[in-house]
Amino acid sequence: MNQPFIPPYPPPHRTRSSFLKRFGRSWTSWIHGLFEKSYTMLMGEIRMPGLHIFIPNELPLIDRVMDEAKNFPKHSLMVEVLEPAIGVSTFTANGEDWEQQRAMINPAFQHTALAKTLPLMADAADALVARITEQLPSSGIIDIDPLMTHVAADIIFRTLFSVPLDAAGSAVIHRRFNRFQRFAQSGSVLRLYGLPTLGFKRRSDREARGIHEVFAPIVEERYRRFHESGEVAHRDILQSLFEAKHPVTGAPFTLQGVMEQIALIFLAGHETSASLMAWGSYLLGECPHVQEAMREETETLTTGGPLTMEALRRMERTRNVVRETLRLYPPVAFLPRDTLCPVTMRDKAINPGDMLVVSPWLIQRNEKNWACPHAFMPERFETAEGQDMLKRAWLPFGKGPRLCVGAGFAQQEAMVVLATLVRRFRVEALADDRPEPVSRLTLRPKDGIRLRLAPRA
After folding, report:
1. Is the domain defined by 19-455 classed in CATH 3.40.50.300?
2. Most-buried pick from 167, 202, 251, 424 (CB within 10 A)?
3. pTM of this structure
4. Rama region for 336: left / alpha / beta (φ>0; ψ in -120 to 50; rest)
5. Residue ranges per domain, the chain?
6. pLDDT digits 0-9 by tens, 23-69
């Protein structure tokens, strides 16, 4: 019987951090400031200069906050941090503005239908294998993190624009988004402490503009041609956004409006998937028995041929690896919400302007919800208890009316890429090189994830 593997996470501090220690520990990562009780508490509370923060961890409270999206909208601090990257798009908009934007973009997501996108995902996964084969040194050791950023960005690029993403564009995105997150994190900590942001906002703005430069020429050129001559280059998400109409006024998106929605879909669509697939690769490298079972499942259901929708639907082991990776390493670890009306939760008075933080990281590692909560155990989802908690205490894509519209897309993408990876390579983690997760806007490895890959015969 294999012992459950405990993958790396920051050891929680024994006691709550002092005001100054919390500042230092949160400077580069939110999860590094947590203490032992954080993982079992039902309601946390933090007082910051000018801001009162509550962290509900009891499941009925989580349901209330996530289901009542109008009473607990996205928090203004998060909107401000993300605005340079994605503008006021459907992720950051609230209330009526969100409803109207969502109605406009819904038709575009017909292009993310899972059967329709499977060939795009398979082609991008094959391109990943080719890149790895070309770059693999004699030692077989390679940093999987930028490679997963490339394949995730490539898949969303093909879905948005009907063209693949080249290596130069991928390198720009990986480098600049890492910087954007680092600067945004430090700026957010300073804001929470009521301090000047010391130029971090200006630097994060610069990195966001650099990311936009990768795809802005495509958007601008196709927008111009469509509005000047009605030219339709491709039937894809970008074209659907050109044709979208406001549900009240009937007006189309402006160029800026299209850019904001594309930036959201591209950045959210690739960054969260890249995080999922990088951590999934690492976990498979640490657990060869899980890796082999997943490979055998894939080979059996495809009879050695290409992946099909029928095979994907039946790949339960692979699906559970993806679910367990998302449970241990949710790409977005903290979801800040605003409070519009006075409420009481667990006898605590929460006033308008107070911040509520729903944390998938804490909920999904709480021993009240999950047995052996820090262990990698994909088989947990084969039990009745695991299936129950999947519905109640598993929320890597949020919950309620603001549930991420790309949840199914991201999980299928990860299944295709990870299944392709283990079919073509044996993946082995390095005993003396464990990755360290850091939580900023998304959860990524601090210094990459180095794995040893060996091509299969």
Report:
1. no
2. 424
3. 0.94
4. beta
5. 19-455
6. 888 988 999 999 999 999 999 999 988 799 999 999 999 999 999 99
